[in-house]
Amino acid sequence: MQIDRFFSVFKTASQGMALQRKQIEISAENIANANTTRVAGTNQPYAPRRVVTNGVETGSFNDMLTQTELSLKTTNPEHLSLNDSNMSVNKDESMAPESQVVSEQKYRYEYDPDHPDADKNGMVKYPDIDMVKEMTNMVSANRLYEANLSVIQAEKQVIKRSFEI
Prior knowledge:
The chain is α+β, with helices and mostly antiparallel strands.
C-alpha cells in the first residue's frame, strides 16, 4: 500500500479543517468590525469579507475512477505483487476546494449627526453585517471543523487497529 494513499484521509480532513478555520476567522473579524466606521489610514468604513469556495473540477466519475485506480502487476494469476513502482496514482491532484477571501462593498446608513464620521446630512456609513448570519456561519464552520477532527481521530484508530492484527 502506498503511503500517500494510506494518509490521504489525514490530508483531506486537514484541508477541510483549514478551510473552516478560515471561515471562523473571517466571521469573527466581521462581527468585531460591525460598527467600524473608519479603517485606519482610510476614510472608508470596514468592508465586510467572506470566504468564497470553488469546487474542484473532477470531470466524470469514470474519468476520476480511472485516474485513481491502482494497477497491480501479477506474476502468477494466483498471486499479487504489490510493487510500489508499478502503482500509478495522480499524487499532485488535490481534492480540496479552492478558497479566497473577498471584500464586499455593502454598507448601511444611520442618522447620527453627532458622530465624528457623519456626512453633511448627519448620515453615518456602517458596514452592512448581519450578526445572525455571521454567528450561523461560525457555528456551522465549527461543526464542520469538529467533523473533520472526528474523521482524523477515527482514521487514527483504524490505523492503530490494523497494526494490532
